[in-house]
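2024-03-11 09:14:02 DEBUG pipeline.ingest accepted 1 chain
2024-03-11 09:14:02 DEBUG pipeline.ingest length=193
2024-03-11 09:14:03 DEBUG pipeline.predict start
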Amino acid sequence: MSATVHRRSIRLSFAAGCSRILPPALVLTVLVLLAGVKAGLEPGGVILLAAGVVGIPGAVYKGAKPLFRRRGIPDSRRIRIVAVLMLIGTVICWAIPLEAPIPLTVAALFLGNAVLVFLRRRLDVSAHVSVLTFAVLWVTALFGGGWAWLLILSPLMMFSRVALREHTRHEALAGAALGGATFSCFLVAMTWS
């Protein structure tokens, strides 16, 4: 085996590891759990929050895919159902009302996912990069500069998605831009509230 082939396989296994270790659903779940902890929810409330905001929509998104395809229902309907479920979760967080930062975090996640769905029609924007970028910025802002080392994860995920040929550089950069823009909306809303 040549050194070039060996280096390429090491890069691909590293890239695959980044994408597998930090899928969007896991990152979203951790983010919602952290928001619940930061707001002072009891453990049961934190788990219920994560199940309602990420678990149920995620189960519909991933779990219902074969069912929808067997029945000939287009993916766009399944994605709309997920968007409605996320919107309902966001409204419930505001209506209860839950303590900060839960409502604004959930609203930002809904906004980011809604924009992601729209942008994916025109450009295959990386959800992995978008969600991870928002998450590391969010953690650094809410838990302090000691967590700034997490910021390296976003470029690593961009490298991962491009190296695996899941996305082009432009699509990975668009994901980072969407995550940054969503975080900016979150930050502006936090400042105003």
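2024-03-11 09:14:41 DEBUG pipeline.report The radius of gyration is 18 Å.
2024-03-11 09:14:41 DEBUG pipeline.predict end
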